[in-house]
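Researcher: Good morning. I'm working through a list of sequences from a screen, and I'd like to move beyond sequence-only analysis. For each chain I'm collecting a predicted structure so we can compare shapes side by side. This is the next one on the list. No need for commentary yet; just the structure.
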Amino acid sequence: MRWHVLTGEYPPASGGVGDYTGMLARALAEAGDSVDVWVGAPGQASTSGSLCVHHLPDTFGPLSRTTLEQAWTAAPGTILLQYVPNALGRRGMNVGFCRWLGAQRQAGRDVRVMFHEPYFYFTAQRPWRNVAALAQRLMAALLVRAATQLYYSSANWHAYLASYGADDSAIVLPIPSTIPVGPRASDVHEFRNRFAPGARVVGHFGTFGEHVGGELLATLPALFERDGNVRAILIGRGGERFARELTRRLPDAADRIHVTGPLSPSDVSVALCACDVLFQPYPDGVTTRRTSVMAGLANGVATVATAGSLSEPVWKETGAVALVERGDVDAAVARIRRLLDDRVARGVQAKRGQDVYRSHFALDLTVGRLREAAALVGSA
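Model: Good morning. C-alpha cells for this chain:
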C-alpha cells in the first residue's frame, strides 16, 4: 500500500500529534507499505527506506494544495489526515483546505480523516474563540463529507460529529503510548535511589496545565499530610512551574518533590517505572486519546485516574486504571494509599493495566485496523 499522511507537526518538533504520527508512519513502513508524510510546517525533508517526509511550502495553503495534488497524481495512494483544527493553520480556521479535500474525494481519491479532536467548545470566558469554534464546525462537516473512512481517537467523537453527517461506520483508534517500554532495571533503580531513596513514590506524567494542575494541587498536599513517607515525581514539561506553586502553598514539602523537566522518551520510561503509583487526573476524565495515561499502562505502572464526562466505558469495564471521580480528593488519596500499602494489589493493578493496553490500545492494533480498512477499499 501507499500512504500519504498529512500532519501539522512531526518529529523532531515536539507535540502529541507529531509524536503519534511519527510512530505510526514508521510502523506502516515497517509493515511493508510506502509512506509519504506531508508536514504543514517548516523542516528538513528526509527519506528512510520506504518512509519519506516532506515539508509543505505553506501551512496547507494554496501552494501546499498544488504540491499535494501533483504528488497524488504521480503516486496515488490512501490519503490520511491527522486532524486537529489548529494543525491546518489559518488560526484554526482553514475552511478552504477542508473544502479542497472534499474535491479530492470527488475526483476519486481515497481520503481518510483521523479526528484527534473535533472542534473548539463555545465559551463565555474567551469569546474571541467562538469565531474559531464556529468555523471549526464547518470544517468538521466538510471533512466528514470528504472522507471515505473516518477514524476517532475516542468513541466520544461519535456524538460530537453525528450532527455534521458522520454515521456509525467510523473506526475508533485509541492513541497508543509514544513512550518506549522496558527500561533497564539498573537505570530505574539508580533514578529512584537518587531522588526518592526508601520512600513511597507517586508520579504524574503530563504538561501540568491549568485544569490538571488544579486537581494535583488539591490532592498532593492531602496525600503528603496523611503519609509522611510519600515523595512525588513530576515528569514532563511544565513541572517546574507547577512545583513552584505547590511549594508556595506547602513550603515544608519542597524536599518531597522532584521535577524532571523535559526528558527523552527513553528517560520518561525510566522515570515512570521508578514510581510505585501514577496519579493521572483529567478535567473531563481519562479517555483513550490521553497518551500520558497510556505511557504508564504500557510500562506496567499501577495508575489511578479520574472518571469524567468523556471517560469511555472501556475504563470501567476493564479496570485498566483505578478510577475515582474528578474532584473527589478523599477518594483519590485513599485509592493511592491503598495501592502504596498493598504490594500485591499494586502488582495486580499494574498487570491488568498493561494487559488491557496490549489488548485494546497498542500501536500494532492501530496499524492492523488502518491497513485492513484501506485494503478493503483497494480491493473493491
